[in-house]
Amino acid sequence: MSEIIAFTKNNADFLLKEALKGREKIELSLNLGKNKQVVDIVQGFVIPKQGEKHKFALEKLQKLKENTIYTIENQKVLAVELFSKESNLYYKLRPTKDWPTLMLSSVPMHRFITSTPKLDTESKINSIKPIKGKVLDTCCGLGYTAIMLAKNGAESVTCFEKDPFVLDICKYNPYSLELFTNKKITLINENVFQGIKKLESETFDRIIHDPPTISFAKELYSVEFYKELHRVLKKDGKLYHYAPNPKKTKGAEFWKTMIKILKNAGFKNVDYYKKSSGIVAKK
Ligand SMILES: C[S@@+](CC[C@H](N)C(=O)[O-])C[C@H]1O[C@@H](n2cnc3c(N)ncnc32)[C@H](O)[C@@H]1O
């Protein structure tokens, strides 16, 4: 899985340009900047270090789209995107200035214009520092929060993702792969609204609740769910809850409503932080 190939139109254009100059060995990244490798150009084919099985024709790189990530499967160049009739959603991995974001029917799952997915993840985690003990990550997405938690002090991370197609997309993202290999992370492919009811009370030292915007997951903003978050949090635990701003254009501040509901569910010291676009609360 660590050998996954992922690249953008920029990488492809660079390969084409260098190959046109007659270069037989070209150094570039085929995993979105994680590291570089030297590929061989042989008779119009690119042969990466992953081997002949992953070779691809240079001519297939000619008409690639912007804002898209490509992989190689059975020597074919394929965009990392899919539509599911089951969920009626279109899934797409989209490049940004650092780590890719996931687009669910054109809605990005990370801030990538005013911030970047990497900085966005860091600011979420930093708002409930120090990270320690058992951590619950309610909405896995591309696994950035789960991976960063596991690398920055968590003893264990329990991570829910309800959508199997999102997990399929993760398998093509070099920055998500640790989700499947880091032994501290337990990944549960289940709706957290139901799954949380099976967890014991006062289990977690920290909770990251990073749901999609309310139109995708209304129940994850309900008092019923917040009561469950409160129940599974330890007495001195901390919650970070991402606060979207669905009515920004109309001037309404949705986080104020969220604060009221969190207080109704029993949370204390409930404060909104603009920098991380989220609410931090204690038990
Ligand atoms: C904003 S993204 C999370 C981003 C994530 N923190 C990361 O590091 O990439 C929200 C994710 O929650 C998932 N989701 C939505 N409703 C859910 C539910 N009820 N239970 C579990 N996951 C859910 C979506 O499929 C989506 O992948």
TrEMBL record:
One GO molecular-function entry: methyltransferase activity
Methyltransferase small domain mapped to chain residues: 127-250
Keywords of the record: Methyltransferase, Polyamine biosynthesis, Transferase
InterPro entries for the chain: SAM-dependent_MTases_sf, Small_mtfrase_dom
SUPFAM superfamilies: S-adenosyl-L-methionine-dependent methyltransferases
GO BP term, example: polyamine biosynthetic process
Record PANTHER family: THERMOSPERMINE SYNTHASE ACAULIS5 (PTHR43317)
Protein name: Methyltransferase
Organism for this UniProt entry: Candidatus Iainarchaeum sp
